[in-house]
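I have a small job for you when you get a moment. Would you make up a two-line entry for one protein for me to read? No commentary is needed, just the two lines. Write everything out right here, beneath this request.
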Amino acid sequence: MIAVLSVLVVAFGIKSCADQSRARKLLRVNAGLIRENQELKDRLTLSNRTTQQIADRKDMQLQMQATFVDRREYFRRNWKQYITLHTGDYKTGFLGGIRNLEITLRNQTEYPLDNAVVIVEYLRGNGAVFKSEPYTLHNIPEKGSRTIQASNSRKGTKVNIRLMSVTSQPMNFCWSADKRVAPGDEDPWACVPKAKPADSLAR
C-alpha cells in the first residue's frame, strides 16, 4: 500500500513539474507576443504621426500659396493701417521758424515700398500755409521705416504732413491722393487689376 502511494506521489510530482514547465513556457510565449504587439503598435503610432505631420505641412504650404495674392490684396485695401507718416520733435524759433524737422514713413506691411511722395506744409500761427515742399522717400523695407531730413523754414510755428502717393511693385500697390476710384471697385489701388473671368467679359 505504501509502495502504491509512493508511486502515485512520484507520478503526481512528475506531472506537476511538467505542467509547471508548460505553464512557464506559455507565459514566456505570451510575454513575447505582448512585446511584439506593443512594438507593432508603437511603430504604427509613429508612422501615423509622421504621415499626419507630412499632410499638415503640405496643407500649410498649399494655404500659403493660395493666400499669397490675397495677402497683397489685404494690405492694399487696408494700407492706411500699415503705412503711416510721422514727424520728429522739430524746433521752433522764438519769433517763428522751424528747424531739425525729420519725416519718417513706417511700413508695417509684408512688402517693401518703392517710393512715397510726401508734402510738408509750414504753417503760420493763424494756420495759413507759409510754404509747402514735396519730398520723396525711396526703398522703404517691409516691417521697417525710412526717415529724411526736411529743410528749415524761416517762418512758421508748426507743420502739416500729407502723403500724396505710395508705390510698391511687390505688393502691386499704386496709391495716389488724386486717383479717382470707380464705383464698386473693391481693389482700386492695384497697379495691375486682376483679370476678370471670361464669362463676365462675354456679357
